[in-house]
Design brief:
Length: 321
């Protein structure tokens, strides 16, 4: 295993955990099991919380500021990325007070286009890497993929873990890959995609979350958006618990990004309630929580207009991606 990443406040216990494969395995399998019924009931209960008008407007603006506008299709073009960047800079052209999106996420070869389009805006540029979405390639290719994105100006990198290695119990291999990609990121933030829809159990989600944190991930992310199910509230609860417990143990704040399947304002508010109640209010910030979505933004903008104007605004009033 490669040397573990240094972290302020990292306890000797965690330093020992990453010493070798057997120590890592003992730690991950020693984590408390997830109460499936309990986590699903709590997620359902928090999802019924009502939000009053003033708070709802705040929640909508907060959610807008957390959106990573994403286009990850084989047919992506320079023009499509530029259009997405313009929307990220000014989501509602008629309402300049609307917050800008957190970032635009593209493939590595389109990072330079996004960087130019977003220059001076404060909107981040994220790039998927490490043979996204499958993660099936050599480390040499994965490193090169990451270095290409960073050299083009990406401020954030979204990597995918090797789910086959994880599910086979080769935790040291997964740890090494994350730590190596973190090093290749340089100053760029690393989001570690767990692809929770392929992990089968909440216990595996908890183990994968801790593995991503131990190896140096700045964020842990649910999904690529290419596998169903993608993000779910119960899975996000488990991941929020992991970053909360990490903070309690080390003093460090790490983020969570649910991605895929979050399409409505009602969905987004449910996630924000979970963030507040499970992790804490500190995480209600784009520095620590993101939505991996694009269609979500349109609904947020329409619902925002409804809150302010008193009537529903149809899709013709916002750009359609």
């Amino acid at each position: 295993m490669v040397a573990p990443p240094t972290a302020s406040g990292l306890t000797p216990e965690f330093a020992d955990v990453t010493r070798d494969e057997s120590s890592l395995r003992r730690f991950l399998h020693g984590l408390p099991g997830v109460d499936q019924v309990g986590v699903e009931q709590r997620a359902a209960g928090l999802g019924t919380r009502s939000i009053k008008k003033a708070s709802k407007l705040w929640a909508i603006d907060t959610a807008i500021s957390m959106v990573d506008l994403t286009t990850l299709e084989g047919a992506d073009t320079v023009g499509k990325v530029r259009s997405l960047c313009a929307k990220a800079r000014r989501p509602d052209p008629d309402r300049p007070e609307v917050p800008k999106a957190a970032a635009v996420c593209v493939y590595p070869d389109l990072v330079e286009t996004a960087v130019r389009a977003l220059a001076g805006s404060g909107v981040g540029v994220a790039s998927v890497a490490t043979a996204f979405p499958s993660g099936r390639s050599s480390m040499r290719v994965k490193i090169a993929d990451t270095e290409l994105a960073v050299a083009a100006g990406a401020s954030e990198v979204d990597m995918v873990i090797d789910r086959g290695a994880f599910l086979s119990g080769r935790y040291g291999q997964v740890f090494d890959e994350i730590a190596t990609i973190k090093h290749a990121c340089g100053d760029a933030h690393l989001k570690v995609i767990l692809e929770t829809g392929e992990l089968a159990t909440y216990d595996n989600v908890r183990r994968a979350s801790w593995l991503g944190l131990l190896a140096g991930g700045d964020f842990i992310k649910t999904s690529t958006g290419k596998v169903s199910p993608a993000a779910t509230l119960p899975v996000t609860h488990v991941m929020l618990q992991a970053v909360r417990d990490w903070h309690d143990s080390t003093g460090e704040l790490r983020g969570v990004k649910p991605a895929g399947g979050i399409r409505t304002t009602k969905d987004a508010i449910r996630y924000l309630v979970a963030v507040h109640e499970v992790a804490g209010p500190e995480w209600l910030s784009p520095e620590l929580f993101r939505f991996g979505a694009s269609s979500l933004l349109n609904d947020l903008l329409m619902q925002r207009r409804t809150q302010l104007d008193g009537h529903y605004s149809g899709p013709d009033y916002v750009t359609v991606d």
